[in-house]
Design goal:
The chain is an alpha/beta fold. It has three domains: 122 residues, 3-Layer(aba) Sandwich (Rossmann fold); 174 residues, Alpha-Beta Plaits; 123 residues, 3-Layer(aba) Sandwich (Rossmann fold), CATH 3.40.50.2300. The strands form five sheets. It has a five-stranded parallel β-sheet, sandwiched between helices. A five-stranded mixed β-sheet has the order 9-10-8-13-14, with helices on both faces. Strand 9 and strand 10 form a beta hairpin. Helix 8 packs antiparallel against helix 9. The longest helix is centred in the middle third of the chain and has 19 residues. The two termini are 33 Å apart.
């Protein structure tokens, strides 16, 4: 997941400001450099730096007094204040801290150490700006990320997400149980995005994701499906079977309330021009409200008149996967993860049982380990059997194996080879691509 680029403001004499700007620019931060406190005040009227590096004494003022000014005028989140001081006198340094500096560094500090110290401050600041419940980027980092997106020409999409019926859930099971549900939603959101995408937690059950225009529906579908499957575990079995909670209102009035579900609103920079980050938040929440009010669950995209369907709700459209895995722990993990993705999953550890199950369930895809316990036929042979049988012409075979011979895997007829150990998101991505391509054909 990407994070917003940190912003550093340097206030120093002309002789040093260029050197510091060049050094800190290499940290990956966006650096602004000025040579007077007056210029700094002009920048601070619209710039929201994460850190200010300033000289303790300059021709137009005292850096210590400027620390006091910033602490008195800037609201949370206040930037980290680092003073550069020529004196090595301990009392002078202590006095700087009393004026409000967060750190005091010597002007003759090693430049590599200076860069590392600045990075440490920025890391700590990012941690402080994360939401305390989910440890995801919080409201201020979301604002910064949206502002960066608005300044770019590349199209992007934002997804606003929250929970339906959380209040009744909290009333029934308590706020701590509700917090666990919110944390689960945060984990689902974080796992659904790619490395170059963003997910943040604004407050309560309010989340915002930034993704590409091309992936917006796929991300919404993944989050909706995974959470709907997972959320059922937060209810006792009798409630799951019943399908609703009972809410007790004033006077003992009881009402049926649906189980927790998601509402997702989608907006895209390719269909409209946003004026500010507030415009993005408002528009995406409006779309989410449409999904909540008109459809009860699912997602709604601004600028469209149709609600996106939830294909996993229709049993006939769910793909079936057969997992042939002799390792019991791995088999259970694969079954759990794939089921959360909305697939129908069957698991076996032997070749003969795999052949029997395949003929009865007609899987769309088979995940196959080469090292099977069956002495008469190994995974390679089983793969050939599947590929030579016309009954399984429609079926993808993926060799998920610790055997390093990918050539043997592909020669045996496998459509895809994935060596162990592998990361689960990569497997899920490949499985999804195979099943979608088969569906299109």
């Amino acid at each position: 997941m990407i994070l917003p680029c940190p912003i550093i403001l340097i206030i120093h004499d002309p002789q040093c400001v260029a050197e510091y700007a060049t050094l800190l620019d290499k940290t990956g931060a966006k650096v602004h450099a000025v040579t007077s406190f007056e210029e700094a005040n002009e920048l601070l009227s619209f710039l929201h730096p994460d850190l200010i590096l300033m000289a303790a004494r300059m021709q137009d003022g005292d850096g210590r007094l400027y620390c006091q000014q910033i602490r008195a005028t800037l609201t949370h989140p206040r930037p980290v204040l680092v003073l550069m001081h020529h004196s090595n006198d301990v009392n002078e340094r202590i006095n700087c801290f009393r004026f409000g500096a967060d750190d005091v560094l010597s002007e003759d500090i090693n430049r590599s150490e200076l860069a590392i110290r600045i990075l440490a401050h920025l890391r700590r600041r990012q941690e402080e700006l994360c939401h305390p419940l989910t440890q995801m980027p919080g409201a201020n980092m979301i604002r910064r990320m949206l502002e960066q997106q608005l300044s770019q020409d590349k199209p992007w999409a934002a997804l606003s997400i929250d929970l339906n019926n959380l209040r009744v859930y909290n009333e029934t099971y308590g706020d701590l149980a509700g917090d666990q549900l919110i944390k689960a939603l945060g984990a689902v959101c974080a796992s659904a995005i790619a490395d170059i995408e963003f997910a943040g937690h604004i407050e309560a059950d309010d989340f915002l994701l930034i993704t590409s225009v091309e992936r917006r529906v796929q991300v919404a579908e993944t989050i909706h499906r995974q959470f709907n499957e997972m959320s059922r575990r937060f209810y006792p079995s009798e409630v799951r079977d019943r399908g609703y909670l009972i809410s007790t209102g004033r006077g003992g009035i009881r009402r049926r309330v649906p189980l927790i579900s998601l509402a997702i609103g989608i907006v895209s920079s390719s269909t409209r021009r946003f004026q500010s980050y507030v415009d993005v938040l408002t528009s995406s929440r409006d779309a989410r409200y449409r999904a909540k009010q008109e459809y009860q669950h699912g997602w709604f995209e601004e600028g469209t008149s149709e609600r996106h369907c939830c294909p996993w709700k229709e049993h006939s459209s769910r793909s079936t996967i057969l997992v042939v895995e002799p390792d019991g722990a791995m088999a259970c993990l694969l079954q759990e993860i794939l089921s959360l993705e909305g697939y129908l999953v069957e698991v076996t550890s032997s070749a003969n049982d795999a052949l029997h199950k395949a003929k009865s369930i007609h899987p769309d895809l088979i995940l196959l380990e080469s090292n099977l316990a069956d002495r008469r036929i190994d995974g390679w042979g089983l793969c050939r059997r599947f590929k030579e049988d016309e009954e399984f012409n429609h079926c993808w075979v993926v060799m998920v194996t610790s055997n390093p011979d990918q050539v043997q895997a592909l020669e045996s007829g496998a459509d895809l080879y994935m060596p162990k150990p592998f990361d689960m998101p990569s497997l899920l991505s490949e499985v999804s691509l195979l099943l979608r391509s088969r569906h299109r054909s």
